[in-house]
Amino acid sequence: MSGIVEASEVQIQSKQYDIVGSLPPELVLQIVKYLDADDVVRDQRVSKRWHSIFSSDTITKFVLHQTLAFLDIDGTDDAVANAKDYFRWRHGLQYGRPVKKMFLRWPVEPVYFQMLAYRSRRLFYHVENQRKVEMLNLETGERLVYTVLDTEDGRSLWIFLSDDYLVVVVKSGDRMHLTAWNLHTSQGYVSEEHSTIGCWFYVKKDKVVVVDLEFAPAYYHVYIWDITNSHRLQKIGGLSNLELWHVDADDNVLVTFEIDWDANPAAVQQTKWTLTGQLLDRKQYGLPLFGHRVNKKYMASRAIGYSRLHTFGHRTQKRVPYMVGEPNTMDLIYDYAIDKLSFRWNDCMQPSIKDLPSNCSVFVTPHTVYNWSFLRQEIEIFNDDDQTTTAQPYQPDFRENSVRVISSNLFFFDFTAIMASDRADLYLRPFGDREVFGMASEDGVQLWFFNPNFVPDIPGMEPFQKSGEEQMQ
Known about the structure:
This protein is of the alpha+beta class. The protein is built from 10 helices and 30 strands. It has helices spanning 2-16, 19-22, 25-32, 37-43, 48-54, 57-70, 83-95, 296-302, 401-408, 415-419; strands at 100-105, 111-119, 122-127, 132-137, 143-147, 157-161, 165-172, 175-182, 188-190, 194-195, 198-204, 207-213, 219-226, 233-240, 242-248, 253-260, 266-274, 279-287, 310-312, 315-321, 328-335, 340-347, 361-365, 368-373, 378-383, 388-393, 429-432, 436-440, 444-449, 461-463. A 5-stranded antiparallel sheet has the order 27-28-29-1-30, with no helix packed on it. Strands 6, 7, 8, 9 and 10 form a 5-stranded antiparallel sheet that branches. The protein has a 4-stranded antiparallel sheet with strand order 2-3-4-5, with no helix packed on it. α6 packs across α7 (83-95).
């Protein structure tokens, strides 16, 4: 009996003693530095005392800055009162839980939805078999039309964006034309005609990088078009095994990375050039892959053409599947501020497929990647904070007829047949950023809004409804 009483007394005493609640605020702050924003929000619910501690302005401000860094937002002037919205925003991105879903039918038909680009609340898309690109501003509802050079094949057109410029590339036969517009003034610029075998493009501020395949596989020339100062493309030397490049327009510098994946560790040649082609620096070093080996032939045949670069300030990142049939991908990351190349491995639920079309992955933040898994019909979300990949089943809107037809036939899926048919685009194209993620099909665009303070209401945009919900109304 006495043992029971003693146990109860110990239990009561343990409940009354709150270790965290008894710590000085400066020590609590040190603990919080090891916690994620979600952990802090959960800790607020433990007790009134914990709610008081973890809701203090000091801790809230610290976690707010941590959250803003995750979102890649310069929030030095953001008030602590906005912290809840930012936490909600971050949590939604990490777990695929938007504030709101909407559906937008294409305002004109037909739209070649694989040729589109999105940046800073503006969606650009190519109208099939016409020499024009249309822009929809999701913030204001404004629509603009950009007319480009004639092309015999309406699909031989690509769209690229920086914060300030729209660049449209038209290819006809072995000739290529580049047209650019200043997005603020609508002033147009045209480059000289360029002969090409196969090109890949990257835009940073008012500079366009053109990587051209010449002579043999994995041998490339780099050209720079300075949009506002010249119509000529400045040629920079031939490069083999080119995997990644970074442009710093302010410093007038191009950094290129040639990687020999057969070496162990992978051999990197990093070269710095001026944007006029002058060699500044060259160094070689190893990039240990920690037990992984890369299929060089596979990487050389697909790594550049099938993966776009994503830039966040002074960082350039690229996702590359490293071997056919393997469920791993690699993100190459270059940080110009500290002049360092690194990588990270990510688990994907869909194995790499040799002929899968490009642009299946979207870096919505430097730390979060949304990957469209065609075989599983899922959005895979990679979170760099804890190196995990989660999945959200893709739910078509009832107006996405083409998506539902293909999805219902996945049991009879024949990838080779689809790739050889008119369905080679695989009917969905992901795009987006930290505010808006979208999935485009030939029917329209499903939009996911994550910023609680940006859920626009523009003509033609309708609330999302899952397939079948229209019959229940």
